[in-house]
Each structure stands twice: as structure tokens, then as C-alpha cells.
Amino acid sequence: MRFGKKTFETILQPHIKHLYRVAYRLCGNTPDSEDLIQELLIKLYPQRNEMQSIEYLRAWMVRVLYHLYLDIKRREQRSPMAWLDNDETKLDRLTSNNTTPEALAEETSSQQQLINIVNTLNDDQRVLIILSDIEGYTLKELANILDIPIGTIKSRLSRARSQLRTLLSREPYQQNYHANITKG
Amino acid sequence: MKCQQVDVNIEHFLDSQLPILQHDAISAHIKTCGTCYTKLTKEKDLRHALKNLPVEDVNPDFLKEAMQKAHHNHKPEQKYFISGFTSAIAASLVVWFLSSNTIATAPENNQFPLISMALNKTRTVQMIFDSPGDFKAVKFNLKLPEGFEIAGYPGQKELDWRVDIKKGSNILTLPLIALTVGKGDLVARIAHINKSKSFRLHIRSKEENNLIL
Questions:
Q1: CA–CA dist B95, B80 (Å, integer)
Q2: What angle do CA A72, A75, A77 make, to 5 degrees?
Q3: Theoretical Cys-Cys bridge with B201: which of A40, A93, B168, B186, CB 3.0 to 4.6 Å?
Q4: pLDDT, tens digit, for every residue of B121-144?
Q5: Is residue B156 part of a domain?
Q6: Which range has highest mean pLDDT (A42-46, A156-160, B97-101, B196-200)?
């Protein structure tokens, strides 16, 4: 028996916000996140029957999402020229270091600083921090999502965290980050 | 337990990845060691801050539309729909080459567009084309004449890549550099499945003093 659009929506309903959140963490902006989710839905739709019997569906969908993200990144890298309509959204990423000293005291600014620091990690480290420390996936789930042995995940995650701590200990982030902690 | 052992295992402690005895030993040490307690608190604070980073919510309108697209994209009649589009992509692509925000010449007529360039200076040519629909992984091939190259791709006379194109106007920027004085044709070929279309642009380069644009 084939299931239709309604069933697909029902299957996705409990997970879609989470999937979008992961997409947004990976892409860093709305248009790219929406494109990624659109590609995910197109890819998943034909598999809607099989999806009903997948045990850890959310982790499985994040895995599909992550691989689509990698495909998109590879496609972009392969393209020697930039499409003009994408330029602005790419520029939005990893920016905004020009806040005033007053604004830096604000929590939102500290959070933005932390996002900026996470975004300065290399892509492998960034993905590990996003999935593990931001989205809370376990090492076992990470190994499954990223197709990497658990031992390798452990050592890479440790290096990623160490790099994050190093970046955080540098000015001007240190002051803001600790201000945020004190507030929290 | 020594502070160094705590230091090495602090992450695994927080990840609950340690054997119970080791976990308990660290817990006991932290209760009596201010330095390790501070380190643990900092690590916990960082993780707390990461977990609480704000994120944008999904737009319900987008979601509704995305679901529709996923559904329509999979309809059985899509097979024929795509083949119709496949020929459409080659038939109805309208391409212009723009240089310095001015349309050089539309290539639909018999005259190929022509641009002039100063030697060793990058000149951005924009290739604009109207697509009848969204297409995934459209293949682009670019052949450059002798003495010209794309900025960032030294020595490459031919470039291939794949890209998704959207319905409507798509703009591709080609940062051209003239390495020697001369002229030739840049040929851009767009292919999707078994259909393709080529476009030609005459380019010539001169010493800057002799350049009349």
C-alpha cells in the first residue's frame, strides 16, 4: 500500500522543526536552510513508506540532511563562478564584529559572538560542535550520522572543543563570553 | 586522583563516558579542589551557552510550499513533464552577455557579442539567461581562447561544473583576465540531460592605452 502526502506530513511533523534547526545551524542563513530542507523533503518523499519502519527516524533524517548539505557544498565548490543572487546570503555568514561596547554587554550579542566563534572553526569541527554540543546528539548517534567510527568522533570532538576553548580565550571574545556566563 | 587526570577526562566526565568508578573519583576530587571545580564549571557554562544559542524557527508558509513541491516533484506524470522541460531548457534559454552593467549584444542575432578588455586587468562579464523552470545539476562548460583565463583558475582553458538553476533570470559572473594581446571566442555550453545549447562571445584584449570600449 502506498501512502500519500498526508502520511508524509504526519511522519515528518514531530521532526521538521528540529530538522530545520539543524539545517539553519549548518547553513547559517534562511535561504540556504530552506533550500536544504526543500532538497531533503524531495529526497525523502519517495521513501515515505520505508520511513515508517525506521527505528531512529530523527537521527536517520539528520544523516540524510547532513549528506545533502555536503553534496550542496561540493557542488558549490565545483562551480567556479558565483551566482549573483546567492552572494548576499553568503556574505551574511560569519560577520558582524562591529557591535558597540555597550551592545556587547547584551546577551544576544554574546550569543552572536559565540555563533561567530563556532563559525570560525573548520567545517568538520563546526559540524561536530553543532550536532554534539548544540543539538545534543550522542557519540553513537554522531558516528551514525557522520559515517565515522566512534573512536574517531571522540578524538575529533575533543580537538574541536579544544579549538573552541582556545578561540574563546582570545580577546575580544573572552570578556563577552564570561560576561554572558556570569549573567546566566 | 590528581588534577591532571581530571583535566584529561573532564570532557568524558561531562559526556558521561567514563566508567562509574572513575566518574565517582572525579566527582569526589572536584568537591575538594577549587581549581578543578572552576574548570568544570567553565566547561559546563560553555556547553550551556552552546545549547542555548538562538535559532530561527521554520516559516510555516515555506514548509507548506516545500511539502507541496516534494509531493508534486514525485508525481508519476513528472517523468513526462521533465522530458518536456528538458527540451524547453535548450529551446527557450535566452542569454545575454553583460559587461559593465550594459548589454553588449544579444546573441540571438547573427552578430556575436563583443567585449574589449585591458591587458592584465580583470573584467567581469555577466552571463544572463532566462530559464523556463528549476533544473538540478545543469552542466556548464566554458572554453576560453588563448591568452584569456578566469580569475582564480590560472592556466585552465576549459572549465566544467554543475549547478542548479532557477526559473526566471539567472546571472552568472565570469571574471575574465586577458594575459596577452589578442582576440578569440569564449564559448559557453549549457547542457541538461541530452540537450545542450552553446553561446559565443568575442573577446579581444589590447594594451590599456589603445583600448576603445
A1: 26
A2: 110
A3: B186
A4: 877 777 776 677 777 777 788 889
A5: yes
A6: A156-160
pLDDT band of residue B98 (cuts 50, 70, 90) is very low
| Residue type, position B141, single letter | N
For the cut 50, the answer to whether the pLDDT of residue B102 exceeds it is no
Specify whether B29 is located in the same domain as B129: no
Are B7 and B82 members of one domain?
Answer: no
Q: Which of A42, A83, A111 sits opposite B73 (nearest CB)?
A: A42
DSSP string, B75-121: -TTHHHHHHHHHHHHHHH-EEEEEETTEEEE-TTSSSPPEEEEEBT-
Which region among A71-85, B38-52, B116-130, B175-189 has the lowest average model confidence (pLDDT)? A71-85
**Structural domain harbouring B21:** 3-51
Residue B183 lies in a domain: yes
State the nearest Cα–Cα gap between A85 and chain B, in angstroms. Answer: 8
Q: pLDDT category, B117, cuts 50, 70, 90?
A: confident
Q: Has domain A1-93 been given CATH number 1.10.1740?
A: yes
Strands across the sheet with B148-150, in order? B102-105, B94-99, B122-131, B168-178, B148-150
Q: What is the pLDDT of residue A159?
A: 94
Instruction: Look up the CATH number of the domain holding residue B197.
Output: 2.60.40.10
Say yes or no: B129 and B173 in one domain: yes
Total domain count for chain B?
2
CA distance A16 to B148: 48
Residue B147 lies in a domain: yes
Same domain, B32 and B105: no
Amino acid B208: pLDDT? 62
Contact A42 B46 (CB under 8 A): no
Residues near A146 by Cβ (< 8 Å), separated by ≥ 6? A63, A66, A127, A128, A131, A153
Predicted pLDDT at A79? 55
Domain positions in chain A are: 1-93, 96-184
Contact A84/B171, CB-based, under 8 Å? yes
Q: What are phi and psi of A84, to 5 degrees?
A: -60, -40
In this complex, do B56 and A33 lie within 8 Å of one another by their Cβ atoms? yes
Q: Which fold has domain A96-184?
A: Arc Repressor Mutant, subunit A (1.10.10)
> Which chain B residues contact residue A115 at CB under 8 A?
53
